[in-house]
Predict the structure.
Amino acid sequence: MYFMERKISIRQVMILFFFSAVSGIMRITTPESNKFLSKSSWISPFFAVLPILVLIFILDKLTEKHRDKSLAQITETVFGKITGKIILFLFLVHVLFFISFFLRNFGEKFVSSIFPNVSPLFFIIILLLSALFAVRRNIESFARFSEFSFLIICFIFILAFFMALFNINPKNIYPVTYYDTTDILKSSIPLISLWSLLTFSLFLGDNIRYSGKLETDNTAGIFKRTATKFMLIIALFNFLSLFAVIGIFNAETAKNLSMPYFMIFKSIKSSGLIQSFETFFIILWAFTDFIMIAYYFFILSKIFKNLFVISENNTKFFMFPVAFIILILTYLIGENNFEAEYFYTNILSYSSVILGYVFPFLLLAVGKIRRVL
Amino acid sequence: MIFYITGLCVYSIFDFFEMLGKSKIHEKILFWVIFFCALILGIWYLRG
């Protein structure tokens, strides 16, 4: 018998997170990744996933006794009302700037790749409005939509990799020795910074069903199992993209390209059948970015709801003015793309690690000391 | 941008009337605080 409650499963949450992690692949994960790109970087996803597996274990411990609560409610339970609200405010500010940066990045990259004569504001507003309309509806239908899209995106992505595979030059990838360990570890820093945002998924906690689809499913450790499985899929996709980028261009060339992954598909021609794979890539890119922005919008609405004690049904009414603030922030974070990327590399990426990776450890420690977790 | 600001005003007023009967007083105040923050930011951005 299927459960009738209107909640999303852990699998659906992880699919939403998958999109937010995969969206970054188009830019080689994050703007700062280019800085650390080296010949051996393609191994880095497997190194980066190790600390995230520890994080998954901590997140599971955090929610073990509070399965029906969101991270915002757990934070308030552990730290108390006032400190809890201050921490939630920091999360709110971080998510506001995070959405702003990725919106800006979306607009700028669209302009620099295919529509040089159009203002980036046009793309930003379209994406923002689409995400806004998604967030005003319920999360269940959005999660089901992304679950359906998951297989299509995976298919396009794997097909793209196989098409790129024929152009890979093995000399660009090998040899990788233990002398490259430092480079590999450096390349995994941006990945850890982005993937640690997995913690933010728990803000949807009161909408998550911590059980299988069927009543007979084994529900013990379902969060750990599903999250680990999807993190490995995300690591594999990152590996494939880095392998293709470094294998086709070498690390030095890829370092100087603004969108190396896009450049691969711009140059691929497939025996006249598909004139250029670029079109598929743009669809994939816009689509994953839309899901990413909408997903963080949902998280923003949850933080907003808990921070200002707003009822569930009324939260959606606040999203339009908040979206307008985000729109202005997209331009306040930097006058040009370089300034925006500087802002991400030097501020947002560190705050992601602090709030996404360090904070759950702190929360668990305080919770255990106060005996509320 | 000017279209978006007009949209913000019109859409927000509709939203406000929609939530009017079913919201608490602090929600109504918060709504207008955020609305005016957004509006002031928008006008400030437009003025360069």
The first strand of chain A starts at residue 8 and ends at 9.
